[in-house]
Amino acid sequence: MSSNSLCPACGSADIKKLLYTSQGGFLWTPFLNFIKCRGCGARFSGKTGQLDPQVPKGMRIISVIVILGFIGLMVGFALSSSFNPLENASPSPTPNVKVPTPSRR
User: What contacts 8, CB < 8 A, 6 or more positions away?
Assistant: First the structure.
C-alpha cells in the first residue's frame, strides 16, 4: 500500500487493506483494493478513492456462475457414484445343470 494513501472522508492516514467484504468476498476484495479507515470506519477504493465502492455486476455474475458450477459438479459426482446399476448389482450365478433336449422319435 502506498504511503500517500489518505482516507477521502476524514483525511486520516490510519488505514488498512481489507481481505474480505460482504460484497466482494475473498475473491474480489483484494483484487479491487478495498481499504477501510481505522479512524472513521469509511470504506473506499484504493485505486480510485471512491467512498463505499461496489463490486461490478460482471464480477458478481462470474462469482455466481463459478459457485453454481462447483455445486453442480459435486451433485453430479455424488449422483453418478450412487446410481450406477452395474456396480451395485450382484452377478447372477450360472447353472451347471445340463438340461435334456427333447429328441424326436
Answer: 42, 44, 49, 50, 51
Give the distance from CA 23 to its chain's centroid: 14
Q: Over the stretch 51-63, which tens digit does the pLDDT of each residue have?
A: 877 777 887 788 8
In degrees and rounded to multiples of 5, residue 51 shows phi and psi of -75, 145
Q: How far is it, in rounded angstroms, from Cα 74 to Cα 43?
A: 36
pTM over 0.70: no
DSSP 12-58: -S-EEE-S--TTTHHHHHHHHTEEEETTT--EEETTT--BS----HH
> Per residue in 25-40, pLDDT tens?
777 777 778 888 998 9
